[in-house]
């Protein structure tokens, strides 16, 4: 049969959900509170508390899970004795806990609490805050030892603040193993943050009737579990008040108030301590949040630099070279790797490229989600244990999503951090009776093979950095691609230019070739037909060129052709064109020219050429020129043919001459 066991410093009433009928009472009700209930008949709450108080309880509990705060009351006719009651719902029942209040300077208590709350609100560091908290609590409760125990990620408890009675040795900086805080215990603190045991050695009392299966796990008055009793006795603790400090991600720690002798705590004091602990916890979370915000800001500031890298894209190698020292400092790392496109860029102390590439291969397979991966014990991780990375103990790897199929990695390495842990208690049951009040043995161990833990805020900051790097590296890749495209574009333009040169220009003299000049003549023919704008062709040929070649050599012959082309070209108007027709024959296309203009031009060119001086050539260079002016009905062929005839007439006429082409033959019908 389930028999709820209670501590006798309070009494208890169990009511129906409606808060009217008393279903059960603790057997100490009458002797502790003087409330006598009639032996027979149905018992109402009003019988126990009086009409007004019971109505108030009912009213304030309506629709609520618990009363917002304790209700103080006196019993009529016994006005010297004060009580306070708490009421809360459990399933279909309401539990009312009644505790006597000793006459106490409540006003003084309020003053002390307010003053202490002010101190807490003014604290600017966690250490200062917790010191202020434990001192305030000790002042209020008078326990021998008040300490704050903070849980690490393995649920070992570290004493981070304490206030001590005289001649007690300090436990500050010492640890209690996780086995001292089993999950059931931690859960119970999460649900009910205050636990008071005034006398650990007091036998639990069976104060509720055997038939009432009442869930008392949330009651102040519930008796401690036997194993907890044994544990506290082993510590030499006779009375204990403990309170949870609830962090934003779970139980942050516990406040312990311990005494070596039984020690009672008045309900208002207990409630005041609870308020102080809640306030201190809030303040601590705020201080931590501020500290984290400052840290994140520092990381953000380092990103601003890589933001600059976005406008002036830098290679991963350069980024790492410029930023590695800052990032290593921020992340307390001694090595950084940027793994991009299958290659490792490294700074500081890092594993060999082969070890990194193996590591990344395994990460890619084992760690498919987009969050970071981290460990502080590479040697113990299945993913990394077989990799030879002796100088690294911790790693934080952040995937960078470069595109849908490819991930780059930012990997930070931390060195081993040898840590000395001072244990107040050994994890396994210690056969020697140790005492928390007066610890008998100091026991410590050295932890090797681990790096410092990666804090949540550091992981968040690394993700921020990863996102920034993804952008910076992408910007660099895009800019490299653009540069490559620009180079290709230039090479293509140059090739096109060369092609154009080859297609339209004579390689020796650099004037238009036959194809191009023919094109120009045809275009001019079209314009002449449409606008009846006359133009002329001057076809000229170097006189006795064979003899120059034969006497001075081909290269002098070439020089003659080049010098001739330069001379003629430079003597033409911008709208006239020179082309090499073949061998030592050239054509001048003279636009907007009638017979007189064309003959004038031909004469001018002839006499200019006759004065041409070529180095190494001891004879004059002359040309014979045939001039044909466009006539309606001319084609390119007829025009050139007429100019050619005229040129041959000039040759036969003695060379170094200009001859006009004959009128074209009228078409015969
Ligand atoms: N050096 C050089 N010679 C060329 C080039 N193209 C043609 N020739 C030469 O020019 C000469 C032309 O000779 P011909 O057609 O007999 O005419 P010519 O000697 O100038 O006599 P006339 O035209 O009657 O005054 C040939 O020997 C060709 O080999 C060239 O690009 N460079």
TrEMBL record:
EC number: 2.7.7.65
Domain Phytochrome chromophore attachment site: 125-282
UniProt cross-references to PROSITE patterns, sorted A to Z: GGDEF, PHYTOCHROME_2
Catalytic activity as recorded in UniProt: 2 GTP = 3',3'-c-di-GMP + 2 diphosphate
Top EC category: transferase
Superkingdom of origin organism: Bacteria
Keywords noted in UniProt: Chromophore, Coiled coil, Nucleotidyltransferase, Photoreceptor protein, Receptor, Sensory transduction, Transferase
Pfam families: GAF, GGDEF, PAS_2, PHY
GO terms of molecular function: diguanylate cyclase activity
CDD domains noted in UniProt: GGDEF (cd01949)
Coiled-coil intervals, chain numbering: 478-505
Domain GGDEF: 533-663
PANTHER family: DIGUANYLATE CYCLASE DGCM-RELATED (PTHR45138:SF9), REGULATORY COMPONENTS OF SENSORY TRANSDUCTION SYSTEM (PTHR45138)
Protein name per UniProt: diguanylate cyclase
Organism this protein belongs to: Vreelandella neptunia
Organism placement in taxonomy: Bacteria, Pseudomonadati, Pseudomonadota, Gammaproteobacteria, Oceanospirillales
């Amino acid at each position: 049969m389930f028999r709820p066991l209670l501590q006798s410093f309070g009494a208890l009433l169990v009511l129906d959900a409606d808060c009217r009928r008393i279903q059960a009472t603790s057997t100490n009700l009458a002797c502790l509170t003087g409330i006598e209930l009639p032996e027979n008949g149905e018992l109402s709450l009003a019988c126990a508390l009086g009409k007004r108080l019971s109505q108030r309880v009912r009213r304030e509990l309506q629709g609520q899970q618990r009363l917002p705060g304790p209700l103080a009351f006196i019993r009529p006719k016994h006005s010297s004795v004060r009580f306070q009651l708490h009421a809360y719902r459990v399933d279909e029942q309401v539990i009312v806990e009644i505790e006597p209040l000793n006459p106490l300077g409540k006003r003084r208590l309020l003053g002390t609490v307010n003053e202490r709350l002010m101190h807490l609100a003014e604290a600017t560091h966690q250490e200062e805050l917790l010191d202020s908290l434990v001192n305030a609590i000790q002042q209020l409760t008078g326990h021998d030892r008040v300490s704050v125990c903070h849980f690490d990620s393995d649920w070992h408890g570290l004493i981070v603040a304490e206030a001590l009675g005289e001649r007690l040795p300090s436990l500050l900086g010492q640890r209690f193993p996780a086995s001292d805080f089993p999950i059931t215990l931690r859960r119970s603190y999460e649900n009910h943050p205050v636990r008071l045991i005034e006398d650990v050695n007091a036998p639990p009392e069976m104060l509720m009737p055997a038939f009432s299966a009442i869930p008392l796990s949330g009651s102040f008055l519930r008796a401690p579990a036997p194993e907890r009793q044994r544990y506290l006795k082993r510590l030499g603790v006779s009375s204990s008040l403990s309170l949870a400090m609830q962090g934003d991600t779970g139980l942050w720690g516990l406040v312990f108030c311990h005494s070596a002798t039984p020690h009672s705590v008045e309900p208002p004091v207990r409630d005041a301590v609870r308020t102080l602990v809640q306030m201190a916890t809030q303040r601590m979370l705020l201080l931590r949040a501020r500290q984290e915000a400052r840290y994140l800001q520092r990381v953000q500031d380092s990103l601003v630099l890589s933001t600059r890298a976005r406008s002036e894209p830098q290679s991963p190698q350069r980024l790492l070279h410029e930023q590695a020292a800052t990032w290593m400092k921020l992340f307390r790392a001694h090595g950084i790797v940027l793994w991009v496109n299958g290659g490792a860029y490294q700074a500081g102390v890092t594993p060999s490229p082969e070890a990194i590439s193996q590591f990344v291969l395994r990460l890619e397979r084992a760690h498919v989600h987009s969050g970071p991966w981290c460990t502080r014990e590479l040697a113990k991780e299945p993913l990394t244990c077989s990799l030879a990375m002796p100088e690294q103990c911790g790693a934080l790897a952040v995937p960078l999503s470069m595109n849908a199929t490819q991930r780059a990695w930012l990997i930070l390495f931390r060195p081993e951090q040898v840590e000395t842990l001072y244990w107040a208690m050994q994890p396994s049951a210690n056969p020697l009776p140790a005492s928390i009040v007066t610890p008998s043995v100091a026991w410590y161990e050295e932890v090797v093979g681990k790096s410092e833990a990666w804090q949540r805020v550091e992981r968040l900051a690394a993700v921020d950095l990863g996102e920034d790097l993804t952008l910076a590296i992408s910007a660099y890749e895009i800019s490299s691609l653009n540069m490559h495209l620009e180079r290709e574009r230039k090479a293509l333009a140059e090739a096109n230019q060369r092609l154009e040169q080859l297609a339209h220009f004579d390689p020796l003299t650099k004037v238009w070739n036959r194809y191009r000049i023919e094109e120009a003549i045809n275009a001019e023919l079209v314009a002449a037909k449409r606008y009846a704008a006359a133009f002329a062709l001057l076809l000229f040929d170097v006189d006795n060129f064979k003899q120059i070649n034969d006497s001075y050599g081909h290269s002098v012959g070439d020089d003659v052709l080049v010098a001739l082309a330069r001379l003629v070209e430079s003597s033409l108007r911008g709208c006239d064109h020179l082309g090499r027709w073949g061998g030592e024959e050239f054509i001048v296309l003279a636009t907007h020219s009638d017979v007189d203009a064309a003959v004038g031009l031909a004469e001018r060119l002839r006499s200019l050429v006759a004065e041409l001086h070529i180095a190494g050539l001891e004879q004059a260079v002359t040309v014979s020129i045939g001039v044909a002016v466009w006539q309606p009905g001319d084609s390119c062929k007829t025009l050139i043919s007429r100019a050619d005839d005229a040129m041959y007439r000039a040759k036969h006429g003695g060379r170094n001459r200009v001859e006009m082409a004959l009128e074209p033959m009228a078409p015969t019908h």
